[in-house]
Design goal:
This protein has no helices and five strands. The termini are far apart. By secondary structure, it is mainly β. β1 and β2 (8-11) form a beta hairpin. The chain has a five-stranded mixed sheet, with no helix packed on it.
């Protein structure tokens, strides 16, 4: 998928490829993957189904 991550265009298959410490729980309980996705804050990226054009922000 082609997404924008912190202002940069990236092509990835899963949000985990973008996040620090790519090895995380993957079920939304650890909060290690919380990000803003498409303007919605506090989204657990590990549970989000990426779509082309998604905008993901981890920095304020």
């Amino acid at each position: 998928m082609k997404v924008t991550f912190n202002g940069l265009q990236r092509e990835v298959a899963h949000a985990a490829e973008l996040l620090p410490g790519r090895f995380f729980c993957g079920i939304g309980v650890c909060f290690g993957c919380v990000a803003e996705i498409n303007g919605v804050s506090e989204v657990r990226a590990c549970r989000h189904q990426l779509r082309d054009g998604d905008v993901i922000r981890t920095k304020p």
